[in-house]
Amino acid sequence: MNAKRQQSMGSRALMNTLLELDSNTATSSADGVELAKRILRRDRLRVRIFIGATITFFLLAVAGIFGSFLMFYTYITPKMDKILLHTSKLTGAERVLALGCRELYQSQIVGLWIISASVAALLMAAVCTVLLLLATRRSTLRQIQASLQVLSEQVETLQQSLRGSQSPGTSQTPQEPGG
Questions:
Q1: Distance between CA 79 and CA 98 in Å, rounded?
Q2: In the chain, how many domains are there?
Q3: Alpha-carbon gap, residue 160 to 172, rounded angstroms
Q4: Is residue 172 situated within a structural domain?
Q5: Contact criterion met (CB below 8 Å) for 95 and 84
Q6: Is 169 part of any domain?
Q7: C-beta pairs of 40-43 under 8 Å, 24+ apart in sequence
Q8: Any residues with CB less than 8 A from the CB of 31 and at least 6 apart, and which?
C-alpha cells in the first residue's frame, strides 16, 4: 500500500509540475526535469528487477527439466536395469512382476518426455509473451514519439505565424464585417 501511495504521489507530483511548468522560469523547469529523471530511473529499476526475476525463473524451470532427466537416468534406470538383468533367475510370479516393472519404467520414460515437452512449450510461451510485451512497448513509444513530433511541428508553425502577425512593422487592425 505504501508503494502505491508513493507511486501516486510521484505521479501526482509529476502531473502538478507539468501543469505548473512555466517556460519563463528556469527553476521550475529544472525541478520538473529532475523529477522526470527520478521517475524514469525508478521505472528503469523496476523493469530491470522484473527482467532479472523472469530470467531466474526461466533458468530454474530449465534446471528442473534437466534435473528430472538426471535423476531418472542416474537413480531409476540403474535400478531397473538391475531388476531386468536378474529376470532369468526369477520364478513365474516374480517374472510377471519384473515385466510389469519394465512396462511401468517404459511408461515413465514416455511420461517424462511428455512433461518435459510441456514445460518447454510453457517456457517458449513465456518467452514469446515477454517478447510480445517488449514489441508492444516499443511500438507504443514509437507512436508517441511520432505524435510528439507532429505536435512539435504544429507548435513551431503556430509560433512562427504568431511572430509574423505581431511584427513591429505591421500593425493590423481587425476589419469589421461589411466595412
A1: 12
A2: 1
A3: 17
A4: no
A5: no
A6: no
A7: 42/10
A8: 17
